[in-house]
TrEMBL record:
GO cellular component entries: membrane
Domain of life, source organism: Eukaryota
InterPro entries in the record: EamA_dom, EmrE-like
Membrane topology, as annotated: Multi-pass membrane protein
Residues passing through the membrane, by range: 45-62, 74-92, 104-121, 133-152, 164-183, 195-215, 227-246
Protein name per UniProt: EamA domain-containing protein
Localization annotation: Membrane
PANTHER family for the chain: ACYL-MALONYL CONDENSING ENZYME-RELATED, SOLUTE CARRIER FAMILY 35 MEMBER G1
Chief subcellular location: membrane
Native organism: Effrenium voratum
Presence of keyword Transmembrane helix: yes
Every EamA domain range: 7-143, 164-290
Key words of the record: Membrane, Transmembrane, Transmembrane helix
Pfam families to which the protein is assigned, alphabetical: EamA
Length: 327
């Protein structure tokens, strides 16, 4: 199987893990599964605490240095800090903006990544551009950002939003873009995929308590059931982040990150099936757009891989001897 297909499948698996993380985080943060409502940075700390144990165990079992190659540690540390900055700015934007507006602004990161990847010498084909545009439209149809729908006359209401919230959501998109590009830059540096996750966990364990204190969060010792859910959250995060790193190492940044939009479709399905929340034709149409691009991208990569196999199999292994005059 071609690396591009494996990369897209890895990104798809990562999107599935991240959508489950969002579901668990929403349940823990709402207080529906325990008497304590977990605060944003409290969740980040516990998730990263368990992640750190899992990544160190996995790296020890694989015989890989937890800090990675010496020449790549600076960028790896920057990857961890960018990941923490993403979580901090994204959680802040969710606190002061309508969730739909925060999501749409944050999900501009695949487009920013594709643009930034051109400076790394990666091509951004017209089909990739079209797919990213369709996915972004799909996200908007599902989340229905009030400011956009108000301007288009599709939704009434006050479109005034917090300038700091808009800045935070935009910063989250930039931080996510930096994470993706750093992974692409280090793809040839022999950095194990779990090492990327390890740096995120280390950075978050150190900074989450500081940020929680700065935002005056109230933390509490979790119950046994909450610890089980937090462990599940960390396991999904470790798996999802690892698959993200694998996908970005095997596929171009533009195409790989566009698969992140599938998270919105998964969240939409959870909303309908698990949470029994209603939807409308706009949400259904948006989910269809995103799903269609995911299918097209996978079929395109599979067809390209098949063409490569056929071209190799039809190529003669040895050149026929030159015919010449008999002697």
């Amino acid at each position: 199987m071609r690396d591009g297909v494996v990369g897209l499948l890895a990104m798809l698996g990562g999107a599935w893990c991240f959508s489950l993380i969002a579901l668990l985080a929403a349940e823990l943060g709402s207080g529906r599964v325990s008497s304590h409502k977990f605060q944003p940075f409290e969740l980040v700390f516990w998730r990263s605490f368990f992640m750190l144990g899992q990544t160190w165990a996995a790296l020890r079992w694989a015989g890989v240095a937890p800090l990675g190659p010496a020449g790549a540690r600076g960028l790896l540390g920057l990857r961890g800090l960018c990941g923490v900055a993403f979580m901090a700015s994204y959680y802040y934007s969710l606190a002061v903006l309508p969730m739909s507006d925060a999501v749409v602004l944050t999900y501009t990161s695949p487009v920013l990544t594709a643009f930034g990847a051109t400076f790394l010498g990666e091509a951004w084909h017209s089909l990739d551009f079209l797919g990213s545009a369709l996915c972004l439209v799909g996200v908007m149809m599902i989340s229905k950002p009030p400011i956009l729908f108000h301007l288009l006359g599709l939704k009434e209401g006050n479109a005034e939003l917090s300038p700091l919230g808009l800045l935070a959501a935009s910063a989250a998109a930039v931080c996510a873009t930096c994470v993706y590009l750093i992974i692409r830059i280090l793809r040839d540096k022999d950095v194990h995929s779990i090492v990327f996750v390890n740096y995120l966990a280390m950075a978050a364990v150190i900074t989450a308590p500081v940020l929680g204190l700065a935002f005056e969060e109230t933390w509490a010792w979790p119950s046994l059931w909450s610890l089980v859910l937090l462990l599940a959250l960390a396991s999904l995060a470790s798996l999802g982040e690892t698959m993200l790193a694998v996908g970005l190492k095997l596929e171009s940044a533009a195409k790989a990150t566009s698969m992140n939009y599938v998270q919105v479709v998964f969240a939409f399905c959870f909303q309908r099936v698990l949470l029994h929340q209603p939807s409308d034709w706009q949400s259904n149409f948006g989910a269809g757009l995103i799903s269609a691009w995911g299918i097209v991208a996978l079929v395109k990569e599979a067809a390209f891989a098949q063409d490569q196999v056929c071209s190799v199999s039809n190529k003669p292994l040895l050149k026929p001897p030159r015919s010449g005059p008999a002697r």
